[in-house]
Amino acid sequence: MDYNTIIEPFRIHTVQAIDLPDLEAREAALERAGNNLFGLHADEVIIDLLTDSGTGAMSSEQWAGMMRGDETYAGSRSFFRFEEAVQNITGFDHVIPTHQGRAAEKILFSVAVKDGDVVPNNTHFDTTRANVEYQGAEARDIVIPGGTDPATILPFKGNMDIGALRETIAEVGVENVPLVMITVTNNSGGGQPVSMANLREARDVCDEYGIPFFLDACRFAENAWFIKTREDGYADSTPMEIAQEMFSYADGATMSAKKDGLGNIGGFLALNNSTWAQEARNLLILTEGFPTYGGLAGYDLEALAVGLMEVLDENYLRYRIRSTEYLAETVLAGGMPIVQPPGGHAVYLDAAALLPHVPPHQYPAQSLAIELYRAGGVRGVEIGTVMFGRRDPDGGPDEPAAMELVRLAIPRRTYTQSHIDYVAEVVIDVASRAEELGGYEIVEQAPWLRHFTARLKRL
Ligand code: F0G
After folding, report:
1. CB count, 10 Å around CB of 80?
2. Given the CA of residue 188, which atom of ligand 1 is nearest to it?
3. What's the count of helices (H) and strands (E) in the chain, helices before strands?
């Protein structure tokens, strides 16, 4: 093609109406939800950028696959198609389906991690951290130094700090590091990619010490596209070849197929270690289901088998990464500070930079997320001190999170450019009124993963 516009590489086949609640209705919804956007109902939201997880549109090929779904309890045909797709991409010996990513995490860490262990990761996602901590282990984030600075522009800002990995192993002892994990792309650090060189280096360190190396692979295809377009030597490789090489450095992976599986539900644990796989299957039977369906219907496995291939299509990935970048460029030009460069699945607004008058223990990112909803019905998610801060046991201010971000995650193949233009208009309007935004306090919270259910009050 000789033209510059990168179009949505699909046409719309089925549509769903969006509700358009007015300002009064949105304010009432906030009141009811205790200023927690997780408490909103779908019909109270105009554009929903809460998550890119399970919120994408499936293709007609995926729906056709669902009609082929084989609901045999044990040994379903759909499982073998799913297994083949996963093995084609990852090369791992054992493929264990789960109902979503966190179930794979729970099972892997139950098998591999014990009390007192330390699990290094570039940055743990919230469920990954919680599942490591649930085993009594420490979830240690060791992203490269620029990785937590929103303004630092680096091509692979999700890379693990390999020096810090060595230091961690030396400090806690190799016997207390049951596995090393790298999250691609680094969701909690801004959706930032990890380079092939970094994966290779991590592999080398793991080989040196005999430590298993796992990927948290939710957004492996987006990561592959960044490698193709940013890392020397990969411009002529296909996303599939790049993905295969990424997985070749790992001993296993956990995956939420609700992201780059292009599914509405599903996940897997895939690995080479037969002993761990056997233990994982035993646990799977206890909590998820028989190993050839793992908490999914046969038709889900079919949809994922197709989705895992579609996600590696170059036209799709070019459009996907460009549409995220387009939102980022537009809001940045309009005065909203963001994490640079934009990530693959989301634009992360930098609330600390926008709202210097709101201290971290008054939750600036929550304040920004609330105002985006109040003003324009746009729902993002706080990734700041509400999500990752540590509560002071004596009732003092929380220990702040590394960054105060609002993530606008873009569901796959769901919104058009005019939806994104509307979002940009709302974001730019809120940025222009930053001084009107104030702090919040938490009035109710759960002992873990508090961000899902906490209630907040404006100060
Ligand atoms: N790992 C990463 C990097 C994730 O982003 C997620 C989910 C998970 C693991 C857990 O997967 O939800 O299928 O159990 N992230 C979603 C999000 C929820 O909004 O970023 P799950």
Report:
1. 15
2. 3
3. 16, 14
Which amino acid residue places its CA nearest to atom 4 of ligand 1? 125
CA distance 80 to 61: 18
Predicted pLDDT of residue 255: 98
Measured CA to CA, the distance from residue 370 to residue 380 in angstroms comes to 9
131: Cβ below 6 Å to ligand 1?
no
| d(C-alpha 323, C-alpha 185), whole Å | 17
Q: Indicate the SS3 state at residue 350.
A: strand
- Which of 107, 127, 185 most suits a substitution to test ligand 1, by most atoms within 8 Å of the C-beta? 127
Query: Can you tell me the distance from the alpha carbon of 139 to that of 218, in angstroms, rounded to the nearest whole number?
Result: 18
What number does the ligand 1 atom closest to the CA of 267 have? 13
Atom of ligand 1 nearest to the CA of 54: 13
Is residue 340 lining ligand 1, measured as CB closer than 6 Å? no
Count of residues for the chain? 459
Which of 99, 185, 218, 324 has the most ligand 1 atoms within 8 A of CB, as the residue to mutate?
A: 218
State the 10-residue block means of pLDDT for the chain, 459 residues long: 87 95 98 98 98 98 98 98 98 98 98 98 93 97 94 96 98 98 94 97 98 98 98 98 98 98 98 98 96 97 98 98 97 97 96 97 98 98 92 88 94 97 98 98 91 96
CA of residue 73 to ligand 1 center, whole Å: 27
* Closest C-alpha among 307, 250, 442 to residue 362: 442
Asked whether 183 lines ligand 1 (CB < 6 A), one says yes
Return the DSSP state at 170.
Answer: H
Residue 353 burial class via C-beta count within 10 angstroms: exposed 0-12, middle 13-18, buried 19 and up: middle
- Ramachandran angles phi, psi of 352, nearest 5°: -65, -40
pLDDT on residue 394: 86
Distances 382 to 163, 343, 386, 443, 445 between C-alpha atoms, Å: 30, 16, 7, 17, 15
Q: Which domains are present in the chain? A: 23-52+313-458 (3.90.1150.10), 60-310 (3.40.640.10)
Strand ranges, E, within 234-273: 252-256, 267-271
